[in-house]
Amino acid sequence: MAVGEPHNTLDASLFDYHLPVERIAQNPVRPRDHSKLLVLHKETGHVEHRFFYEVGDYLRSGDLLVLNDTKVFRAGIRGNRADSGGRIDVLLLHEVGDYQWESLVRPGRKAHVGSLILFGDGRLRCKVVGRTEAGGRVLDFAPTEGYSREFLMEWLRHYGEVPVPPYVKTHVTDDDLYQTVYAEKVGSVAAPTAGFHFTEGLLERLGGTGVLIARITLHVGLGTFRPIKSPTIEEHEMHEECYHVSDEASRLLRETRERGNRIFPVGTTTIRALESSAQSRGMPQPGSGWTSLFISPGHEFRCVDGMITNFHLPRSTLLVLVSAFAGREVVMRAYQEAIEHDYRFFSFGDAMLVM
User: Fold this and answer.
1) Handedness of CA 183, 184, 186, 188 (dihedral sign)
2) CATH class of 12-72+174-354
3) Tens digits of per-residue pLDDT, 91-137?
């Protein structure tokens, strides 16, 4: 059950806070599981300061960790308008047809419907065929001779760029730097960063203590990271993202609940996938779907007993989700304590265990 304020109109500024710029992590900690871990006990607001490799101290045999196994692809590509040669930057989001992709394009004013965009040596090209409600573009790659999804992914592997968040000034050339160690299913334009703190060794040690692991998939797109620009959180609209819950994951979730053990999703993306699948059905069911679920205070959590997450941007849907689980005031006090104790924030930053 959610803890916190009743579900009514909430000013987005309630989820704002001041973060010194030096607290924004530019590189991950090495080894990954040596990042700091702030443990927040939501019922009391009590905070403990640990390291992530100690997370097993809070998990019991039979508890279930749920991981998002999505994999980031090199979705950023630089092109030029065929008519003028002007530069066009494209971020591919997801396929909407056999040849078509919903994308973010800059400068958007130069990418009008009908424009032809060339990439690299011109072997890859696309036509702008539509606009989206979120301000993006629909690109049709049918002008490319021999186009297939496999051709595009291979081209991106050689020429695409890792789409790191704008607050990360480090130029990421190593794909593994912006992936979880369990990333498997290609489809995200941003990583489920709460999983960055796990190493293969830590996962093996947790398994050795009886902690179970399930994997689901949510391909991260605009919905997760689009900032709240409206005056109230109720006015914010989430962008749809695709998720999948396997038969095995559904079984593990159901059996964990039946045994009375606890479910710990890793990351807000995992939580959104589970809660979307569980809506009106009690527990997540096997299958795929699209979700625009915005979890805010008042949400009744069906399959979250604790969560592992990072420290999120001010006025973000991710911070609102964590506040829905633990209570806004409790979370904001914990964030302030994290700042005072020199925690590192955002994608490459430190972790929170909320329980």
Assistant:
1) negative
2) alpha beta
3) 999 999 889 999 999 999 899 999 999 998 888 999 999 999 888 99
